[in-house]
Design brief:
The protein is an alpha+beta fold. It is 30% helix and 26% strand. It folds into two domains: 93 residues, no CATH class; 93 residues, no CATH class.
């Protein structure tokens, strides 16, 4: 891909090539926004290849618009250049019968609901992110869990290892070394977070 295109990625964007069960995927990441989208090269039965661009994230998530603003222009340009290399025209692309994709494996992410100590109402949500070692990976967890905390509509915190340190396996009762509030990017130390969480739990009914 690099040798066949003259397109230069923005400085904060990188990509990796992955082999899926049904296609090759070029997955693009932003330093702060995490994964922003991917280009899929899906082999067809007649020897041709179908190319598609996909922005990641829930359409109702405001951050999806930011990911799209960065990924869409570069994704479309790279697609155009790859189609030119393969000598394809828009008419060729329109006549493709795309095979049905197999379901992709969903990632299991550990989370915990925190209830009020008096009435039992959920007052906060914790998301455990053992692999979040930089802002982009924290954003990955926020993106993947958006439908859940958006529906609950409660303060949500992402708990991960210390940024820029190696992530380690932790038991469910672990204490976070780095805490980020989903979407506000507010970062707290464990002591600060524990104090704030206590306020949510004890003051809900007061």
């Amino acid at each position: 891909m690099k040798s066949k295109t003259s397109f230069r990625l923005p400085p904060d964007v990188s990509f990796e090539k992955e082999r899926l069960s049904y296609a090759w995927a070029y997955v693009f990441r932003h330093r702060l926004l995490g994964e922003i989208g991917r280009i899929l090269l899906q082999e067809l039965g007649d020897g041709r290849c179908h190319i598609s661009c996909e922005v990641v994230g829930d359409p109702s998530d405001p951050m999806t618009t930011q990911r799209e603003a960065i990924f869409k222009p570069l994704g479309l340009e790279l697609t155009r250049q790859m189609e030119a290399v393969m000598c394809r025209t828009p008419e060729d692309a329109g006549s493709v019968d795309i095979p049905t994709r197999p379901p992709e494996i969903k990632e299991m992410i550990e989370s915990k609901l925190i209830p009020c100590e008096r009435c039992g109402t959920v007052v906060a949500m914790l998301i455990f992110a053992p692999n979040a070692t930089d802002p982009g990976h924290f954003e990955d967890y926020a993106r993947k869990m958006y439908p859940h905390y958006n529906q609950l509509n409660v303060p949500t915190w992402i708990l991960g290892p210390c940024i820029r340190r190696r992530a380690t396996h932790r038991a469910p009762s672990r204490r976070a070394e780095s805490v980020v509030c989903a979407r506000t990017d507010q970062r707290l130390q464990p002591a600060q977070f524990n104090s704030l969480l206590d306020q949510f739990v004890t003051r809900h009914c007061h």
